[in-house]
């Protein structure tokens, strides 16, 4: 279809006996920000790097702006930010950006871009002396300097301090406003929730859920409160409509899930009154993307 | 805050402009790197002055006439092989080659830029070394174009070997290996010690080394003793073809 910035179908990538990407489908629409979420080793970077032309697929089809990823015609049209590195250690920030700008026909002004990303004072600093966050921002600058149609950002805010994160988010929003398609990978749920039109959650090489942040978090709400630990939740559950759930996690933090409406709230608070429980921080919240993510990908460490 | 026009306006710069920009960056990186300057200029100058002044060598004619051609060959070795191998090895290790592969600069463009950068550095080395040698009383003979041909072939052979090393070994191994090869070839390849100083039995081996072919060829032209150095040219040509083919075959970008 014409309006896809990235169209991946039935993609498979194996490293020896490990299947990193397992029949994955991914569609990123033009002019939108697509966030690819997933635990470490889920296949995010493999998928992105196949789209970027750095790796080849074992099977499946990949089209980027309607072309094969290794098509040289694509290079000027896409901007790429690697997870790390890619810059000579001794190169000065300003020189590196100017060099990359010279590969393009209508680049942004390197000094203005450095200024914009808070790197103006470091134009003459060698790459190896930049902090991790400054190196990340230089990588972002190099990805956008050629005025691409599509930008791939692989964990753009990993290791950034809050100011730098906001600068990066502002840049992504501006790119979107300017009509640039953005595909980013991230571990930060709030980042995906704030920035993206479309979220794709990948686990074990497959898409486990996708949709807008609102679609993914759904209409489902939770009632949360704090109280003394060890309350007997069976009693309150028996008073709630079937299908409700209650849990204490961690100790003293209670979550009631189900049809969260005024009557449920009344039932819970009435039960608290009979138990002589004073609640703190009672709130009704929508599930966060993080809840959805952990539900889908599990809580165990890998 | 600066406003930036981020609206898409993609397009590659013309190839010559990209190659020039990349070559300029590589020349700057070389000239700024202390270790590189040690190999490319300081050691050759010290050898040139030392072996021309001190009576270590037993050669016919002024010592500088023997030493200067050898040091010019060493300059080619240091830049085309050692410097290029180390720089490219670390570019590969730090993902620079990968990152450049994502820009409109093609691999062909990158190789053209690397070649141009090597040639620019070599020209600077040759100018400095020739001036020093002339100040030491050097009187060169022969056809400069023949010397240029040998230098080009030597550059091709050493670049092939350097890229082969950089593209197959880890960066640290390349760093150590390229310096070791530099020292071995400096000692064995007739740069300041004549090959005739080594035992008869290993001489045929030494004579097919690319450095020996380059020093012998350049020396025979510049001392005006022989005609066109056919043997040296053929040895260098063979090394250039084999090394570049091997590098093209086995070089890994990541």
From TrEMBL, chain A:
Subcellular location: Cell membrane
CDD domains membership: ABC_DR_subfamily_A
Cited InterPro entries: AAA+_ATPase, ABC_transporter-like_ATP-bd, ABC_transporter-like_CS, ABC_transporter_ATP-binding, P-loop_NTPase
GO biological process: response to antibiotic
Pfam families named in the record: ABC_tran (PF00005)
Cellular component, GO annotation: plasma membrane
Topology of this chain in the membrane: Peripheral membrane protein
Primary location class: membrane
GO molecular function: ATP binding; ATP hydrolysis activity
N-terminal signal peptide: none
UniProt name for this protein: ATP-binding cassette domain-containing protein
UniProt organism field: Herbidospora solisilvae
């Amino acid at each position: 279809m014409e309006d896809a910035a990235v169209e991946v179908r039935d993609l498979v990538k194996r490293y020896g006996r490990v299947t990193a990407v397992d029949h994955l489908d991914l569609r990123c629409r033009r002019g939108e920000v697509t966030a690819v979420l997933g635990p470490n080793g889920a296949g995010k970077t493999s998928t992105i790097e196949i789209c970027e032309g750095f790796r080849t697929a074992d099977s499946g089809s990949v089209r980027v702006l309607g072309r094969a990823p290794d098509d040289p015609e694509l290079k000027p049209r896409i901007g790429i930010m690697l997870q790390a590195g890619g810059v000579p250690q001794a190169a000065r920030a300003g020189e590196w950006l100017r060099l990359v700008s010279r590969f393009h026909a209508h680049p942004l002004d390197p000094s203005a871009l450095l200024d914009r990303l808070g790197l103006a004072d470091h134009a003459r600093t060698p790459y190896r002396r930049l902090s991790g966050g400054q190196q990340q921002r230089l990588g972002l600058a190099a990805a956008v300097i050629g005025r691409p149609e599509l930008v791939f950002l692989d964990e753009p805010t990993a290791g950034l301090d809050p100011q730098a994160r906001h600068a990066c988010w502002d840049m992504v929003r501006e790119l979107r406003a300017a009509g640039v398609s953005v595909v980013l990978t991230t571990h930060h749920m709030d980042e995906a929730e704030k920035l993206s039109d479309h979220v794709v959650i990948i686990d074990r090489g497959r898409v486990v859920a996708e949709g807008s942040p609102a679609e993914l978090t759904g209409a489902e709400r939770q009632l949360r409160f704090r109280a003394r630990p060890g309350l007997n939740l069976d009693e309150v559950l028996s008073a709630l409509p079937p299908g409700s759930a209650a849990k204490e996690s961690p100790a003293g933090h209670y979550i009631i899930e189900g049809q969260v409406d005024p009557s449920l709230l009344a039932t819970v608070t009435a039960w608290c009154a009979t138990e002589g429980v004073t609640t703190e921080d009672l709130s009704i919240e929508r599930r966060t993307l993080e809840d959805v993510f952990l539900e889908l990908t599990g809580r165990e460490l890998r | 805050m600066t406003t930036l026009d981020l609206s898409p306006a993609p397009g590659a710069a013309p190839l010559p402009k990209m190659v020039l920009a990349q070559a300029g960056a590589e020349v700057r990186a070389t000239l700024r790197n202390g270790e590189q300057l040690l190999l490319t200029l300081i050691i050759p100058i010290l050898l040139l002055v030392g072996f021309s002044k001190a009576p270590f060598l037993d050669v016919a004619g002024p010592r500088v006439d023997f030493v200067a051609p050898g040091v010019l060959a060493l300059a080619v070795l240091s830049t085309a092989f050692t410097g290029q191998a180390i720089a490219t090895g670390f570019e590969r290790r730090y993902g620079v080659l990968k990152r450049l592969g994502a820009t409109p600069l093609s691999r062909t463009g990158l190789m053209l830029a690397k070649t141009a950068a090597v040639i620019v550095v070599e020209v600077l080395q040759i100018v400095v070394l020739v001036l020093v040698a002339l100040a030491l009383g050097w009187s060169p003979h022969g056809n400069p174009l023949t010397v240029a041909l040998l230098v080009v072939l030597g550059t091709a052979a050493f670049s092939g070997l350097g890229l082969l090393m950089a593209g197959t070994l880890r960066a640290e191994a390349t760093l150590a290996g390229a310096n070791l090869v530099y020292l071995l070839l400096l000692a064995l390849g007739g740069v300041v010690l004549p090959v005739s100083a080594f035992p008869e039995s290993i001489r045929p081996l030494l004579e097919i080394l690319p450095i020996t072919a380059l020093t012998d060829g350049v020396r025979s032209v510049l001392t005006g003793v022989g005609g066109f150095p056919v043997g040296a040219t053929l040895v260098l040509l063979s090394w250039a073809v084999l090394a570049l083919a091997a590098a093209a075959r086995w070089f890994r970008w990541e």
